[in-house]
Amino acid sequence: MAFLNMPLSIHPNAVPAAEAAMCASVQGKFWPLHESLFAAQKMWETMPNPIPAFDTLAKVAGVNMVQWRQCVSQHQTLTLIQADHDRAAAARINSTPAFFVGSQLMIGADADVPKAVEAALAAAAGTKKPGT
Which domain holds residue 45? Predict the structure, then answer.
């Protein structure tokens, strides 16, 4: 499973939020900060400067704040985020969330991803030759 960033232009703080999460990722703290960012999105989504809010969330997530602040202020993960965005755009994804299970594209939070994964695993198991 891979997570790709796709900050949408309709959300003015989407790129800074992606940078905050990816800078936490450098320290192995992506998921704790990612989940906190989504849980607190109503608080920071329209702030002119969301960095103080991200800073508080990063502290709670347990990141090394000196390293995290340097990463965020120097935009050290921005090229990775842009590459993710470009990959998604090349796949004609224009909304989030979006999921690929094999080659099947599923759009929306109500997509039944677990069912699609189970079906793909069952299909893959059926294609194995005996003894492999």
Answer: 14-90
